[in-house]
Amino acid sequence: xxSNRDVIFRTSDLQSATAFYNGILGFPIIPDTPDRVVGxxxxxxxxxxxxxxxxxxxxxxxxxxxxxxxxxxLAQGCTLVEEDPSLPRCYMRDRFxxxxxxxxx
Length: 105
Hints:
The radius of gyration is 14 Å and the shape is elongated. It is built from two helices and eight strands, in the order E-H-E-E-E-E-H-E-E-E. Helices cover 20% and strands 44% of the residues. Strands 2-3-4-1-5-8-7-6 form an eight-stranded mixed β-sheet, covered by helices on one side. It has a single domain (2-104), classed as 2,3-Dihydroxybiphenyl 1,2-Dioxygenase, domain 1. It is α+β, with helices and mostly antiparallel strands.
């Protein structure tokens, strides 16, 4: 398991997030699905905002086998927060409060 540069947030206002991160801070927009997800390349990491109820930061960890990693993490006390294989998405929270997505590489 390794981390990547992606950090995901949810917001109810993608337009305002775009106006701030691109218009004010000047971070380039990463082409994606503008009506649902918008990303900004900050240099050291990429911030993505997706439409939805606001949440805290969700980091991404790259794994070869999502189901295997999920099973191992659940056995170690992590909890499944949200899962949608069609996206793909597997949000986990560790015992210390960090939320992360298992990203298949």
